[in-house]
Design brief:
By secondary structure, this protein is of the alpha/beta class. It is 23% helix and 30% strand.
Length: 256
């Protein structure tokens, strides 16, 4: 079991409704990564967060092929969300890709009704916790961050991550909730947001960051297009949970 895991946060300058430009931007950012184990992309990284699912779902197959290619070229697991159509339903789906193959998926559980996401997309009903290089990892999407019961660490994960398109007016909530999730779950927490301005003039300053199991930020929140790679340490998780065994008192929740 590796003692350390290298995690790369890709905070792209997202160009709304322009998949070709986003493909090129992410390609350049991934090319800049030297060595890593896990690469995280923002929510709907190929199109930007949009309710025009009927227009952009068709480009997701191409985006997924790029993720497969990047996972092979960088010898790393890669994850990010795309718009997917199955039957008559659309999903905001997180893909987990390794060695050129999809190994896990997760459909966003909490749909952002404020923007009408619940009228366009279908919600998922299954959590995602998977093992990679001996680390247990839980993946979520954007609005899931506001719902702590959903991500409660009852499955002994070591790393919790969120991929997002989280705009500036609620950026303080983003920073605060990421730290809160790390403290309450005694886990590393990573949030990967986008940078830029959408077609409705909402601005995104990113603030992608990694927090340790005590809620300490490992980087100053990113405020431009950038990639940052952190090495997270098994010993930190082990020592923190041994010293502060708060998880033994955690509640067990039942979902309906």
């Amino acid at each position: 079991m590796p003692d350390n895991l290298r995690v790369s946060l890709v905070q792209q300058e997202l160009v709304w409704h322009q998949p070709d430009q986003n493909f090129d931007r992410v390609q350049a950012l991934i090319n800049s990564i030297e060595e890593t184990d896990l690469i995280l992309l923002p929510e709907m990284w190929s199109s930007g967060y949009t309710m025009q699912a009927h227009k952009f779902a068709k480009r997701s197959a191409e985006a997924l092929e790029l993720m497969k290619e990047w996972s092979r070229s960088k010898k790393a697991l890669i994850s990010g969300s795309l718009i997917v159509k199955e039957g008559e339903s659309y999903y905001n789906r997180l893909y987990v890709v390794d060695k050129g193959a999809v190994i896990h998926t997760y459909d966003k559980r909490h749909l952002f009704a404020y923007a009408g996401e619940d009228r366009i997309y279908k919600a998922g009903d299954k959590q995602l916790v998977f093992e990679y290089k001996g680390w247990r990892i839980c993946g979520n999407i954007c609005y899931d961050l506001r719902f702590p019961v959903w991500s409660r660490n009852t499955m002994d994960y070591d790393l919790l991550f969120y991929v997002a398109n989280w705009p500036n007016p609620r950026l303080q909530a983003w920073d605060t909730l990421l730290r809160a999730r790390s403290i309450e779950n005694m886990s590393y927490v990573v949030g990967v947001n986008c940078f830029g301005k959408d077609v409705w003039d909402n601005e995104y300053s990113g603030h992608s960051a990694c927090y340790d199991a005590l809620g300490q930020a490992l980087n100053t929140p990113l405020q431009k297009e950038a990639v940052v790679t952190h090495t997270i340490e098994r010993e930190h998780i082990t020592q923190t949970r041994a010293k502060f065994p708060f998880l033994i008192d955690r509640d067990q929740f039942t979902f309906t």
